[in-house]
Structure formats: structure tokens, C-alpha cells
Amino acid sequence: MKKSEFITIGLQYALQKKQIEDVICSVMDISSADFIRLEDIDADHLYEVQKAFYKLSNGEPEEYIYKKAEFWDNEFYVDERVLIPRNDTEVLVDETIKEISKNISTEATSYIDVGTGSGCIALSILRAIAPLKFAESYAVDSSADALKVAQKNTQKLELSGDIVLVEGDLLSEFSHSDKYPLSKNLCITANLPYIKDNDLENMAASVIEHEPDSALFGGKKTGFELYEEFIKQCFQLKNILKLENITVFIEIGFDQYEVSKKFLEELGLQFEYFPDSSNIQRVVKIYNF
Ligand SMILES: C[S@@+](CC[C@H](N)C(=O)[O-])C[C@H]1O[C@@H](n2cnc3c(N)ncnc32)[C@H](O)[C@@H]1O
After folding, report:
1. 74 in ligand 1 pocket by Cβ < 6 Å?
2. Spatial distance between the Cα atoms of 62 and 22, rounded to a whole number of angstroms
3. 220-223, long-range: CB < 8 A, 24+ apart
């Protein structure tokens, strides 16, 4: 079928020309330059392109349709089993890398990414600090499905041998030290679900309809409840394993500065906030457990 006829079909789906081009390039695995030269869409790709037109016009996120998302200069495989990595989460990666380069001796430190999803945080950090390596690196998720996606990404980014994927609830798997040994110093990143349960008002329809609930909702009252449990587990882990230092970086919701600050102060922790691109405090470094 002629490319021009196909563009007309795309327009009938109320798609923009750029979206139509992106669909065709992605399905046919060709560049924009190839697209300009392209005259016909071959029969093998007709169905796939039309299916993608339909999904896009239905509000399905492009990342799930194309099965890829850019994050921190890396391309990740993504599908409906994981949250699509967000640009704002790059602040968490930036601040963790700064901390590692200034204050953390990686070979004497273990690293855990909790709620890893696609693995975008952990794998971006490991790639950025290479050739440095942590003594041990782990990526935890309670969803076996999400871990399958993270596994794909460890292969895609050639980091399979550098990180152990762990299915479990927050830090619970690490209390039995034999299975997943930890060094005396620990660096943790976590982008856990933090939206208040059923707080659908502030959420885009495409997020509600397509992204996994298990990656979104963090508790009934504030949404910060899962983080509260996680931070309590950091204290427990420190006591059980007699760790020396734990430094944690978490991403919080746009409206969770007050609730998080109050909680951290009550526990006597030290902390520092970092803003996102809209100047909202979204990342917290927590230490002195
Ligand atoms: C907001 S998503 C973040 C995914 C990824 N880290 C990112 O930044 O794109 C939260 C992830 O935490 C996982 N999760 C939810 N509850 C958890 C729990 N109790 N223990 C471990 N992981 C959990 C979800 O399955 C999901 O993959």
C-alpha cells in the first residue's frame, strides 16, 4: 500500500503527522531519513501499523506501543508490566551519582534499588559509575512480572552479571543475610508507589487506564505510607545486620514535602530535599539511621 494512503488512514484516526511517522518508523524499524524515501508499506507491516494507530488513538502510551522508553540517555524495554520511566526521576539518579562520586566508597558499599520496575534507576546508576562497582548490587520488586522486564533490561544494557534481581516486599529479603549478603555500608534508591489510593483527580487518564496499579498507589491517607514502612525497615535492617551507614534516596509526590518532613523529623533522621525541573521538592536524601 502507498505510504500516502497510509498517512490518510492515520489522519482518520485523528493522529498527527509526526505520530504517524513515528509509528511507521518504529514498526518497520527504519529511520526518519528512510521514512522520507519510503514509498510503500509492505504487506508484512500493514496490520502492525494499523494496530498501533488504533492503540495510539485510544490513548495508550507510545512507550508501551513501541516497547521502549528513554531514561538517563539509555533506552529501556518497557511494557504494561512496569511504570514508564519519568523524566523527573532522573533527579534521583543525578543526586545519587553525585553522592557516590563525593562520599561513597563503592567497593565497601552494597547497593539496593527498591521498587525497581523496569530497572531504570539501578541500571542507569550502574552504567554511569562504571568501571566502579558496588560490592553487591540488588534490584527488588514485589512484582514477579516487573522483574521479568528488569531482567530484559539488564541484558539489553549488558549488566546481567552486575546486579541480582530479588522478588520481595521492600527490604524483607535482606534480613536473612546468607541469601543476599550486604556490606557494612549501604546505599539505597527507591521510587515506590506514592499516590494516595484512588486519588484519581490528579492522574492522567492514560496512567489510570494503562499503567499498573501496583506501581502507583502507596496508601489510604497520604500515599506516603509505603515509604513509612520502608524507612522503618531501614532501621530494622541496620540493627539486625549491624550495618554502619545507610544512605537512602527516595522520590516523593509533588504534595508530600510536609508529610515526609514531619515523619523524618519524628524519627530523628537527617535529610536533604532536591527539587525537580518545576522547582518542587521531589527527591529526599535520608541518612543517619
Ligand atoms: C513507581 S514504580 C517505580 C518503578 C521504577 N523504579 C521507576 O522509577 O520507573 C514502583 C515499583 O515498586 C514496586 N512495588 C510496589 N510495592 C512494593 C513493595 N512492597 N516492595 C517492593 N516493590 C514494590 C512496584 O511493583 C513498581 O514496580
Report:
1. no
2. 9
3. 220/196, 221/196, 222/196, 222/256, 222/259, 223/193, 223/194, 223/195, 223/196, 223/197, 223/199, 223/253, 223/256
Write the CB contacts of 264 (distance below 8 Å, at least 6 apart in sequence).
231, 271, 284, 286
Q: Which atom of ligand 1 is nearest to the CA of 216?
A: 1
User: Cβ distance 76 to 146 under 8 Å?
Assistant: no
Neighbours of 235 (CB within 10 A): 13
Main-chain dihedrals φ then ψ at residue 114, nearest 5 degrees: -105, 130
Whole-number percent of the chain with pLDDT over 90: 85
Q: How many angstroms separate the alpha carbon of residue 199 from the centre of ligand 1?
A: 18
Q: Does domain 69-287 have CATH number 3.90.1150.10?
A: no
Q: What ranges do the domains of the chain cover?
A: 3-58, 69-287
Query: H or E stretch including 95?
Result: helix 90-103
Peptide bond into 131 cis (omega under 30): yes
69 C-beta closer than 6 A to ligand 1:
no
Q: Cα dist. 195→29, 223, 237, 261 in Å?
A: 36, 5, 26, 17
Please give the number of the atom of ligand 1 that sits closest to the Cα of 192: 10
Note the pLDDT tens digit of each residue in 102-135. 999 999 999 999 999 999 999 999 999 999 999 9
Beta bridge partner(s), residue 40 = 2
Averaged over successive runs of 10 residues, the pLDDT of the chain (289 residues) comes to 89 91 90 91 89 92 94 97 97 98 95 98 98 97 98 98 97 88 97 93 90 94 97 96 97 97 98 96 97
**Bridge pairing between strands 136-141 and 217-219:** unpaired
